[in-house]
Structures are given as C-alpha cells and as structure tokens.
Amino acid sequence: MSTKKLTSEDYNDYSSTENSPDHDSLSSSPDISSRSSNNFGNYQRLNERTGTTPLETLIHLLKGNIGTGLLSLPLAVKNAGIVLGPISLIIMGVVAVHCMHLLVKCSHYLCAKLQKPFLDYGNVVMYSLEECPNLWLQRHSFIGRLLVEFFLILTQLGFCCVYFVFLADNTKQIVDAANVTSNNCYQNITILEPGSMDSRLYMLIFLPFIILLVYIRNWKCLAPLSLLANLAMCVSLVLIYWYIFTSATYTNDLPPVAGWKSYAMFFGTAIFSFEGIGVVLPLENHMAKPQKFPVILYSGMAIVTMLYLTLGVMGYIRFGDEIEGSITLNLPACWLYQSVKILYSLGIFITYAVQFFVAAEIIVPVAVAKVSERWELWVNLAVRTLLVIITCALAILIPRLGIVITLVGSISSSTLALIIPPLLEITTYYGEGMSRLRIAKNVAISVVGFVGFVAGTYVSIEELVSQTVSVTNITVSNDS
Fold first, then answer.
1. Of 35, 90, 102, 381, which is most buried, counting CB atoms within 10 Å of its CB?
2. Spatial separation of the C-alpha atoms in residues 123 and 337, rounded to whole Å
3. Are 275 and 103 in contact, with CB atoms under 8 Å apart?
4. Are 226 and 343 in contact (CB under 8 A)?
5. 21 or 477, which is more confident?
6. Over 90: is that where the pLDDT of 79 sits?
7. What's the predicted TM-score (pTM) here?
8. What is the pLDDT of residues 267-317, one digit of tens each?
9. With contact defined as beta carbons under 8 Å apart, do 163 and 68 qualify?
10. Spatial contact of 117 and 48, defined as CB atoms under 8 Å apart
C-alpha cells in the first residue's frame, strides 16, 4: 500500500478498510454543479461505474456496528434501568441514524457543489467550513479536518484498547476454569483457580501476536481473515442468544430508573456501541448506486438497534446485578459456552487489525513522508509496532472493560456520532437559508452529545480513580 502523503484534494478513506474507487477518466465526469442542494433522489457519484451492491453494503454496515459494544449493552441497560434503558436505546438509535443521514446528505451536497467524486469525513467538515459565511471559519477550515482525524484516531485506537482488555478477560476466564469445565451447561457456576495469572499478563502475551498481525498492510490480504472473524462472531452471537432465551428468568425487582451517574455510564457504553459513523461515508462512497444508500442505512440500523435492544434487555434480565462488562464473562463454564468465548475472542483478535488499519492510514503516511525511500518500510513497521504497544499500555493501565468502553464512547464516539454531524449541517446549509426550528434541532442534538461527553468522561474517570484507590488500599492492608 502506498504511503505517500495525500493532499487535501485527494481522497483518503480514513474510516474504511475498503479500496478506493478508480480515479481515472475525470474528463468524462458529468457536470453536477447545477444540481439543487435538496434534490438528491437521483444522486449519481462522479466517475462511479462499478461498486458494491446494496446487499454487500448492508453486510458491511452490520459488521461496522456489531462488535464488543454489543456485548456490553446488558451492563448499559443496568446502568440506566430496566425501563429507561430500552427507551434510551431506541431514542439513541434514532438520533444516531439521523446524524449518519446528515453526514451523507452534506457529503452529497458538497460533492455536487465542488464537483468532486466523493469525500471522506474529514474533507466534508473542511469543505463545509470553507463554504460557510463566517470568514474566520473559512480561513481555519483545515482545523475541522484535523479535529475529525484526531477523533478518528482516538476512536479506532480506543477500540483497540478495548480489544486488548476483552481478549485478556475472556482468555483468563477460560484458562482459570479449564480444570472444572464440563458438559453441564445448566449450572452457571464458575470456580476459578486460586492464584490465577493477572489479566494484564495475558495482554502482554497477546502483544507480539497482534504486532505481527498489524504488519499486514494490504486489505486484500486481510480480507480472508476478516471473513473468518465475521463467521466466528456470528456463531458466537447465535449461541449467546440461545442461552439467554432458553434460560431467562423473570424478576420484578430490577430498578426501572438508575441515578444520573449510572446513566452517564450508560450513555458512554451505548454511544460506543453505535460505532458505525466512521464507516458510513466509505460504504456510501463505494456503492455502485449510492441513491439506494438511505434505504440500506435505515434498514441496517433498524436491525442493529433491534439486536442491541434484545441483547441488552434480555441479558440484564437473565443476569441482573451480576452482569459483567461483556456478557460472555457471564456464560457458564461448560465446553459449549467456553467455545463461544474462544470464537468471539478469535473474531476480536482479527478485528483488531481491521480497526487499527484506519488509524494507521492517517498516522503512518505522515511519519513515512519524513524519511527517504530506503527507510520507508522500516519506519512503517516501527510506527505500527509503537501504536500497538501504546494501546496495550493503555489497556494495562485501565484493565476494566466497562470503564474503557464508557470512556472511549464518551470522549470520541459522542463527538463523531452526535456533536459534529448536526453542526455540519448548519455550516453547510446556513448560507442558503435554514429555518430556526431546523437550527434548534441540530443545536439540541449537539448539546445533548456534549453533555454526554462531559458527564460520561467525568463519571468514567471518577470511577477509575475510586477503583484505583480501593485496589491500593487493599494491597497496603494485605502487606501490613
């Protein structure tokens, strides 16, 4: 893969692992500059002749939104309450899809106005600021692109940190319960061996293997592994749903509404789960018939929201207050459900490289551009190694899966999914006239996203500090 630094006129798909469409035949591109800003029912991308089918796009959309966040939703529902949690998930799903639509809509408008084949998230924000009436924003439009790239890097490397914790926690539980694992899946009792190895040591064991994995620099080479990951995670989810629905017990003592601090944790976890904002434009950019993307978006996200709702609610009902940061950690210690942990861990291990690919495509070219061609490969591999070590170190510092997910969701996911898209529509269309109601709606969504950003980050850090102090006190008392 080429590592040359792209200019702002080039398209670099920072939020996708797909190959970019062909840029040839620019001279044959139709002139769409005269199209109405609101008439995109017949939108046809410049230069686009071939691309993904609607079914392929739907599959990629589902994969982009189903990961470790799905497994953490029962804990999220617990933090919100058995009544408020499902209602909030539905509302958040509607708002998240609306923000995805706003992003695609602004991209369409700017592509038509500027006569560009397609734009990534960062370029959409940059060109939107260039088109807005405010002179200061026009002169500093590049800051918008840098901001998006920063949060994309933060989000993707945050996912990678979560993957380290997930792999360590599930592997530790599998190894610790290996001697008592049986064929009896109806007794949900996990007996752990005393003096078992710390989960952070498992992270260090995974580190060299993940470093070797991210040395794969070509998406075509990674594609077969990605397919294997999809199959492993799909089988795991089927078995998880089977266990929940066949062993669910109903109780009336689950709290309907939780406190505000717990709800802030819910917000971070839930918005982390709706992690598909980064793949929306890349998927739409690669469609042969992009005018069909809204149907794919709404139908795909409806499926995703239904999965979130059912697993979140039924998982909480099944395990109650004992629910862990990932529902896989609550499965019984029998061979069938231990295999679920192994399969899902395999899928997450491979998915690490997929999520890492996005951040690497932003960072690596900058570093490689500063050295001669002779050293390009070595610098490329060195930067990749350093980034993996950083994600491992951060995971070791915060080895609690629930806190890591909430922190990543509150800081980066809320910014990309809720705060920026509504403001983007204002800057894009303000010069052409917008109703006060439309502006108020967009501002309200961004404000809610910002409040969730602040509250979720504050509560996550507070929870992290309090747990660190508790562990320190326990250690000191044991030593004395």
1. 102
2. 45
3. no
4. no
5. 477
6. yes
7. 0.78
8. 999 998 887 777 788 778 777 778 888 899 999 899 989 999 999 999 999
9. yes
10. yes
CA angle 419/466/88 to nearest 5° reads 35
Place of tokens 């940061």: 325
**Cα–Cα nearest to 421, from 111, 102, 109, 121:** 102
- Cβ–Cβ < 8 Å for 420, 382: no
Tell me the C-alpha distance between 380 and 110, whole Å. 33
Helix (H) or strand (E) holding 270: helix 260-273
CA separation for the pair 171, 230 (Å, rounded): 19
Average pLDDT value for residue range 72-95: 93
**Segment 125-130 mean pLDDT:** 92
User: What is the CA 418 to chain-centroid distance, rounded?
Assistant: 13
For the record, the structure tokens of 431 come out as: 């010069």
Measured CA to CA, the distance from residue 336 to residue 342 in angstroms comes to: 10
Contact call for residues 269 and 311 (beta carbons, < 8 A): no
DSSP labels, 313-382: HHHHHHHGGG--SSGGGGS-SBHHHHHHHHHHHHHHHHHHHHHHHHHHHHHHHHHHTTS-GGGHHHHHHH
C-beta of residue 223 within 8 angstroms of C-beta of residue 353: no
Kindly give, in sequence order, each residue whose CB lies less than 8 Å from that of residue 175, ignoring residues fewer than 6 positions away: 196, 197
In which residue are the tokens 């980034």 written?
387
Q: Cα(56)–Cα(395) distance, rounded to whole angstroms?
A: 34
Long-range CB contacts (< 8 A, 24+ apart) of 194-200? Answer: 196/172, 197/172, 199/165, 199/168, 199/169, 199/172, 199/399, 200/168, 200/396, 200/399
Beta bridge partners of 70: none
Angle at 361 between CA 279 and CA 400, to 5 degrees: 70
d(CA 91, CA 80): 13
